[in-house]
Specification:
Elements lengths: L24 E6 L6 E7 L10 E4 L10 E4 L1 E8 L8 H12 L5 E4 L6 E5 H5 L5 H15 L5 E7 L6 H17 L10 E5 L11 E3 L12 H10 L5 E5 L3 E3 L4 E2 H10 L25 E6 L4 E6 L12 H6 L10 E4 L1 H4 L14 E3 L2 H7 L20 H11 L3 H7 L16 E10 L5 E10 L13
Parallel strand pairs: 1-4, 2-5, 3-8, 15-17
Antiparallel strand pairs: 1-7, 5-8, 6-7, 9-10, 9-11, 12-13, 14-15, 14-16, 18-19
Helix pairs in contact: 1-3, 1-5
């Protein structure tokens, strides 16, 4: 007898990675335009939890109109057991993503305060019309997959007038968890951790979690990962022996390379943990934000999932995220957590904060105390500049450190006759190719492989 016999749709790993498009959705919960959404797990004592209890505060799915978008949603899960401890909260919470995606026609994206869920019309018409059914699936999967959980109860909050207090609690808990790992250093531990939870969406992605580099989703710290690997050794979080340090600045370790190569089935062979160039850490799709290179100023922008406007280079968050998601290593685009922005290892090999030139005002406020004091007013936000030209002027006026690099890279034009006609292989931090009319093509952190590159002057007009 199946444990899901009373659920009107199928439940299984086969549905993980299923996408539900706008025209297919019955209702959408959370999402980028929803102000109040979160998922939170709290460790409780045995007498505080009623096993299997499911509570819905606000309208249920069957009470929502077809096509409802950005519906408020809080998923508050309380767990208890002899081995349940506070350090496991974040790891248990992250498995909500995996278990929701086991449900046919039910899609879960992201984490923490960024959750985004969709139910398909087809599954709704098959009878999946209540959060209570979703709760039953989660309860059974959590207890089956994580047997150290002895009791579990779930509260779904869809009433926008009742969610604010729990939302505030959730943000406070997230901040407290993140703060626990601060002060630890990567070179003081022998073991890092990896997470392959997002491989259903990004098959070659492996998160490498260190004391100074959180998981990209921001939900799992080194302490969380350590606890998870101990109580759930067959789960998605696993130990990585650091091995030999190959490059201190870039953060390359033999053990990390071996683990990532094995877990990505050979797709990714090397990882540099503290840079966005060369062999940058891969990105899944659930990352909290992204760093993106702006070649016009030789600096980095930062953007988070909640930013709804255009970034300074004219791209949206979605456009930038699409450039790095899927487990790829893309030079200049780097999926990151907000906590990693606070880390001393943040883009260490690229110059760290000395190379950051733009970020949303909301994120600047959240990480301000971790920024070098002398740079706070020299880094622009959307309130200061709207495009690259304005950004260049702002950086010059404020005396940002990247401006010194512009002066150093000024090279006199070379005549077109001297232009190279073939570039069989080129890999360089900065390369200059002269072109007709005194123009120069500047390639920064480029990896180009071509049989021949021919640059010809444009024909003169009669």
């Amino acid at each position: 007898m199946s444990m899901f016999e009373d659920i009107p749709v199928e439940v299984g790993v086969i549905y993980e990675g299923e996408r539900i498009r706008g025209e297919e959705l019955q209702v959408e919960l959370g999402g980028p335009k929803c102000d109040y959404k979160f998922e939170l797990v709290r460790a409780k004592s045995m007498d505080e939890v009623e096993d299997g209890k499911i509570t819905i505060i606000g309208p249920d799915i069957k009470d929502m109109k077809e096509g409802t978008r950005y519906q408020t949603l809080g998923i508050y899960i309380e767990v208890a057991g002899k081995e349940v401890e506070e350090e496991l909260e974040g790891v248990i919470e992250r498995r909500t993503h995996e278990f929701c995606n086991f449900i046919q026609g039910f899609m879960h994206l992201n984490q923490r305060y960024d959750i985004w869920l969709r139910l398909s019309k087809k599954s709704f018409q098959s009878g999946l019309n209540s959060l209570e059914q979703i709760g039953k699936v989660l309860h059974r999967l959590f207890k089956s997959e994580l047997p150290f959980i002895e009791k579990l109860q779930i509260t779904f909050i869809t009433d926008p007038n009742k969610i604010a207090e729990r939302y505030k609690e959730a943000l406070e808990v997230y901040d407290a968890r993140d703060a626990r790992a601060r002060g630890m250093k990567d070179d003081k531990v022998e073991t890092f951790y990896g997470c392959a939870l997002c491989q259903s969406f990004a098959p070659s992605h492996v998160c490498v979690i260190t004391p100074q580099r959180f998981s990209n989703c921001g939900a799992i710290s080194w302490f969380d990962a350590k606890a998870a690997a101990r109580v759930d050794p067959k789960g998605p979080v696993f130990e990585i022996e650091k091995g030999e340090l190959l490059d201190e600045a870039k953060g390359e370790y033999t053990g990390v390379n071996e683990a990532v190569k094995k877990k990505s089935l050979g797709d990714v062979e090397r990882v540099w943990l503290y840079t966005a160039f060369g062999y940058p850490h891969t990105s899944c799709g659930c990352f909290e934000g992204s760093a993106f290179y702006i070649p016009e100023v030789d600096g980095f922008g930062l953007v988070h999932r909640g930013f709804k406007d255009m970034t300074v280079n004219g791209l949206t968050y979605v456009g930038i995220a699409d450039s790095t998601a899927g487990g790829r290593q893309v030079d200049g685009f780097h999926g990151i957590s907000i906590e990693y922005i606070r880390s001393p290892k943040f883009l260490q090999a690229d110059g760290g904060w000395n190379r950051v030139v733009w970020l949303p005002a909301e994120i600047k406020e959240r990480v301000k105390e971790f920024m070098p004091a002398e740079l706070v007013e020299k880094i622009a936000t959307e309130k200061d500049v709207a495009n690259i030209d304005e950004l260049r002027s702002f950086l010059k006026e404020k005396g940002h450190p990247v401006v010194e690099g512009w002066k150093a890279e000024e090279i006199k034009p070379i005549e077109a006759a001297e232009a190279p006609t073939a570039v069989p292989t080129l890999r360089a931090s900065t390369a200059v190719i002269p072109a007709a009319g005194g123009f120069r093509i500047i390639l920064k952190n480029a990896k180009i492989h071509a049989e021949k590159v021919i640059i010809k002057p444009a024909p003169k007009k009669e």
